[in-house]
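Researcher: Here's a chain I'd like modeled. Treat it as a single chain, no partners, no ligands.
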Amino acid sequence: MKNNTLIHLGLALLRIVPSAFMLTHGYPKLMKLINGNTEFADPFGIGQAPSLFLAVIGEFICPLLMIIGFKTRWAAIPAAITMFVAAFIAHGSDPFGRKELPLLYLTIFVIIMLLGPGKYSVDKK
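Model: Modeled as a single isolated chain. Structure tokens:
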């Protein structure tokens, strides 16, 4: 395999696997929103329903877009912002172990923003 092929395979894995894992956090929030249960944290004072809606975008909609590689760099932005909020606001006073997972996701989504989706994506077709 050419080195270039390995780089694009690595970019695809970096994009797809963490985004698929993120869906496990976003799906319950999506179901909550669909069922009309908008009880959710409101860290910015915009209301529970808008906060939940933004979390669904960052944890479900954008990861779906990243999985297929559509508008990947743009989709990584709300996901990264959501993880920033989770790490530094929702879990701001928690010990590092509680912040570790959102910080890992944040790092991955920032890398995706910087490097793009690679050639194995809808963006590159």
